[in-house]
Structure formats: C-alpha cells, structure tokens
Amino acid sequence: MIVRQFISWVRTAPAGERAEATRALARAWLISDLTADDRAAAEGALLMLLDDGSPLVRQTMAEVFAGSADAPAAIVQALALDQPSVALPVLEHSPLLIDADLVDLVDLVATGHPDTQCAIARRVGLPASIGAAIAEVGHPAAALELIENPTAATTAGSLDRIAERHGHLAAIREALLIREDLPAATRCTLAARLSDTLAHFVTARNWLGAERAARVAAEAMERSTVNIAAGSRGDDLRGLVHHLRATGQLTAGLILRALLCGNIDLFEAALVELSGLPRQRVAAIVADRGGAGLEALLTRAGFPESSFAAFGAALAAAQEIGFIGTVEGRIRLHRRMVERVLTQCEMDPETAEPLLLLLRRFSTESAREEARLFGDELVADDTLAALYDHLIAA
C-alpha cells in the first residue's frame, strides 16, 4: 500500500522531493524488513524511477546502491550505463559489477567521458584486462588514476603502453617513475619522451638549432640509458636491452659508453642480444680479456671492424683498473679508462674518424664530470669543517 501511494505521489512531486523520497525507498529496500510483496513492489518502483526525467533522482539511487552487494543487480547495471553524474559512484564502487560486467563496459573506456574512465580506473582490485583497455585507449586522466591505484592488477605491458601514449605529460611521468615495479624499458621510454619534448622546446624557442638540439638530446638519452641500466638486473636488464635494440638505440656508441662507465652487465647483455650467443659463452669471452674471441664476438654482433681496437682497449683498461660495484660508479664515464682508450686509438691509423670524435667527446665529458665531483667534495669538506668549528666554539 505504501509503495502504491509513493508511485502515485512521485508523478507530480518536485524533483528535489522525488530525490529524497527515492533515497528513503532505496535505503528501505536495503535495510528494512519488507515482506516479499512489498520488496517486489519497491523494486518495481525503483525500476520505474530509472526513467525519471531528473538526473538528481537517479543519482540519489546510485549513491545508496553503489557500495552494497545486496542492491538490485538490474538497477545497478542500468545505473552504470547512465550519464556520468549518475554512473560514477556505481562504476567506482559497486561490488555487483564483476569482471564480466566490466569487460562489457570496455566501450565506456574507449568512447566514454573522462570522468567515467577515471571512475573505472579507481576501482578496488581492477582486473588486468580492464587496466589494459585503459592503457590502450583511455584518457590521460584515467591512465593517471590507473597508475596511482595500488590495488589494480596493472601489467608491465600496460605501464609501457601508457608511457608510449602519455609519456610527454609530466604528471604521468612522475607517477610512473615512482613505481618500484616499473620496468627499466619503460623508464627508458619515458626518458626518450622527455628528451624529445625538451629538444622540440629549445628548438621552438630558437635557443638551439634543430641539429644541435637533436645531438644534445641523443647524448643525454645515452647517459640516461646507462643510468637506468646501472640499476637493472636479470630479466629487467634483458628486457631493457631488447627494447633498446627494437627502438634502434642499441648502438656501438652506447655499448662503448657502458663499458667505459664500468657497466660490464650492460656490455655483456648487449652482446648477448646482438650476437644470439648464450650468456655464459659471452661472459667467458669477455673474461678472456679480448683477443680473437672478442673480435669474433663483435663481428657476430654486427660491429664494424674499425671499432674492435676501441672495445679491446676499453675492456683491457676496465679489467686492469677494476669495475666499480656501486650504481653511482656505473653511470659515469671513468676518465682514466677513456683517456687510455683514446690514446691507443689515436695511435692506430685504422681508427675511423667518427670513433675518434666520439672518444674525444667522452674525454671532455669525463673531465668535466670529474671536475664537478671534485668541486662537490670541496664544498662538502668546507661545510663539514665549518660545522666542526661551530661545534667546538659552542
């Protein structure tokens, strides 16, 4: 009887009053001890209200039913397909939208309003399939929500796709880079997007010519790559090297830089990727300090013969001087190694001019880096001495 009176009244009531009455009816359906007949009548009235002309009425119903596992399933599914202001609470919170339902909502991710995509991306325990859809076609705001959702089952492939599509956006880059599970290859993708963005920026401002900006960006990208590789191990490092090869970045210059930084892991992983030989075989050849075995390996890896002397000298210098085991020690060119290789190559008439130019740039870079480190140490020593004097005086 009460439900019949409600249906009669709701036809002429103002929108605000209809919304409050709908809230009361929805709550009664969830928590009141209704008879079977009253429950059926109440559900019928709520289904009827799905066609109410005021979004406020449907929004109120969505707010009540969004977090309940006991809500009428048909009503929840209808609300999920409503306009964003109505659907958002249900899309984000309803436990009745199981994985199969969310798969049906992938079209919402592809063509829906950004707020709708964001609500789906914020769901607790979001399945990897929906995360992949957001990564592939979602709005940048939805991608950011996905990255920051700690309960989402986000795969490495999804993170990489987000980096490819939205890596030029600072908020996306920052959110990705703080993730501990971010693959090294994806970090490299983000570095490349940032490098391209900065190169275009300085060119547009006429601060640098296009050719000069491209070269500076390429050198910065190489340094970033070695930096990323220094903190990578095992499958992560192999994935990075595979990515570098696929994107055309696994060049002889990059590999020589890695060796001159003392990063033997990246050097060996690159040779494994390019030669197709087992890792143990490559490691044995490298440990043998060069010779014919190293030349055969470099030939198989596709390096020009003119680079053999530089790699041989770099490997000999690295093994004589010793590798630095810390991450910080494997991201900088070591000046002694660079100078030794440059000297030997300058004495070799078969060394190609581009290789000498590369080594001279390495020499300048390593000298400047050494000077910066020396300056930092002096400042640190002065600061420590001043603090010590202050403590004594006190």
Describe the protein.
The chain is mostly helical and 394 residues long. The protein has 3 domains: 1-97; 98-181; 251-394, no CATH class. The chain is 73% helix and 0% strand. It contains 23 helices and no strands.
Strand tally is 0
- Average pLDDT level: 85
> What amount of the residues lies in strands?
under 5%
Largest sheet: none
Structural class: mainly alpha
Q: How many domains would you count in the coordinates?
A: 3
Order of helices and strands: HHHHHHHHHHHHHHHHHHHHHHH
Radius of gyration: 31 Å
- Give the overall shape, derived from the CA principal axes: elongated
Summarize this structure briefly:
By secondary structure, the chain is an all-alpha fold. It contains 23 helices and no strands.
Keywords:
394 residues; 3 domains
What layout of secondary structure does this protein have?
Layout (H helix, E strand, L loop, with lengths): L1 H9 L4 H17 L4 H14 L5 H11 L7 H8 L3 H10 L5 H6 L1 H6 L2 H8 L6 H10 L2 H8 L8 H11 L3 H8 L6 H21 L5 H21 L3 H13 L5 H9 L3 H12 L3 H9 L4 H9 L7 H14 L13 H12 L6 H41 L1
Helix pairs in contact: 1-3, 2-3, 2-4, 4-6, 5-6, 6-9, 9-11, 10-12, 11-13, 12-14, 14-15, 14-16, 16-18, 17-18, 18-19, 21-22, 22-23
